[in-house]
């Protein structure tokens, strides 16, 4: 069996091939990186609507009499504040307060949750969660439901208009708040419709039966959505300063360092990593995530260094040419004394020094 045959395919693979997508290996999946081009797809999301296949993401069901208490102790955000029909952003943390992964938690019912994790970590995250469920009070069932779902992300200012023509009652999709969700139908197929996304735009994520996904995809495209690949997804999320595991987040990074301290609820009771985060909040972080704008010619990419007085002081986590602002932007970890907006930075890019300046995050905020 060849390496290509070992790669997984989403239920939408044939749709991508039909649309002429360039397919790449991403986290063990054959995924579309682009169709017509990253810049065109990026701008379609910012001005109209783009459609992404994110079926490679992992879904883990956590339910039972002790499910809320279990997730309270496993994650830093306050699960008790969620009501059915609401989701929040959180993470899996080590004892040291660093990331195993970032994730979304959907409260389906009183003791029934859907945890959505990154594709690259899906199997590891499932094992992490399941291995910690056994000793909890009450019954906690942890089930890997990734094969039950195809996941489409419809993003952009025209997403609501496009989806309205295909979604069926009883869901009032216009009335869904950000991070709200409901179960209904799209194109006649049962769907969990979530007002979430990873682009900085308004939009929806649709959890569908795998066999229904191709027809829904084609109907959304017919209704005006532009297929968009992983390339545009990355430039869009970077402009919106949304952290990506493997870039801004990893097992050396804490939420406070990544500017995600708002997910840490230290007053909710004990949770995995809390002691380390209490200490870091009191003592300060050794580094901070900042946004930067390149002032010379060139683009800084992940792994390029930030230098000062001839020595390395930081690392670029993400960088790109921004289709919206038509300039090179990125994010980097730097010492706190270099983190203030307006601070000049020197980036080391392929042996050359590139001037940059710290700017406010996010780079992009959608018009209200």
Please name the defining characteristics of this protein.
368 residues, alpha+beta, Gyrase A, domain 2, Alpha-Beta Plaits, seven-stranded mixed β-sheet, six-stranded antiparallel β-barrel, 34% strand
Structural write-up:
- With 368 residues, the protein is of the alpha+beta class.
- Among the domains are: 3-55 and 149-239, Gyrase A, domain 2, CATH 3.30.1360.120; 58-145, Aminomethyltransferase beta-barrel domains (Alpha-Beta Plaits, 2-Layer Sandwich), CATH 3.30.70.
- The chain is built from 9 helices and 21 strands.
- Strands 11-12-13-14-10-4-15 form a 7-stranded mixed beta sheet. It has a 6-stranded antiparallel beta barrel with strand order 16-19-18-17-20-21. It has a 5-stranded antiparallel beta sheet with strand order 6-7-8-5-9, covered by helices on one side.
- The chain is globular.
- The mean pLDDT is 96.
């Amino acid at each position: 069996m060849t390496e290509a045959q070992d790669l997984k395919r989403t239920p939408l693979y044939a749709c991508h091939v039909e649309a002429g997508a360039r397919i790449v290996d991403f986290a063990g999946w054959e995924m579309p990186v682009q169709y017509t081009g990253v810049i065109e797809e990026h701008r379609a999301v910012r001005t109209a609507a783009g459609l992404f296949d994110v079926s490679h993401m992992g879904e883990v069901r956590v339910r039972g009499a002790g499910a809320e208490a279990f997730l309270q102790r496993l994650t830093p955000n306050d699960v008790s504040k969620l009501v059915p029909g609401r989701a929040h952003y959180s993470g899996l943390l080590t004892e040291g307060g660093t990331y195993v992964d970032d994730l979304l938690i959907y409260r389906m019912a009183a003791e029934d949750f859907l945890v959505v994790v990154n594709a690259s970590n899906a199997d590891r995250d499932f094992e992490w969660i399941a291995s910690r469920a056994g000793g909890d009070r009450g019954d906690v069932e942890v089930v890997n439901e990734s094969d039950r779902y195809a996941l489409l992300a419809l993003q952009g200012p025209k997403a609501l208009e496009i989806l309205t023509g295909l979604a069926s009652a009883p869901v009032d999709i216009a009335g869904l708040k950000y991070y709200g969700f409901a179960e209904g139908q799209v194109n006649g197929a049962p769907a969990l419709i979530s007002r979430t996304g990873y682009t900085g735009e308004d939009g929806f994520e649709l959890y569908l039966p795998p066999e229904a996904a191709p027809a829904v995809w084609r109907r959304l495209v017919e209704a005006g959505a532009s297929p968009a690949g992983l390339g545009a997804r990355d430039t869009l999320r970077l402009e919106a300063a949304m952290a990506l595991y493997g870039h801004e987040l990893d097992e050396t990074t804490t939420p406070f360092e990544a500017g995600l301290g708002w997910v840490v609820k230290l007053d909710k009771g004990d949770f995995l990593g809390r002691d380390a985060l209490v200490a870091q909040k009191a003592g300060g972080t050794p580094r901070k995530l900042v946004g930067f704008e390149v002032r010379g010619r060139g683009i800084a990419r992940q792994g390029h260094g930030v230098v000062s007085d001839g020595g390395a002081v930081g690392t670029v986590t993400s960088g790109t040419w921004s289709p919206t602002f038509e300039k090179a932007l990125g994010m980097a970890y730097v010492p706190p004394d270099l983190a203030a907006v307006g601070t000049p930075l020197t980036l080391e890019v392929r042996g050359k020094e590139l001037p940059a300046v710290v700017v406010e995050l996010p780079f992009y905020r959608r018009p209200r």
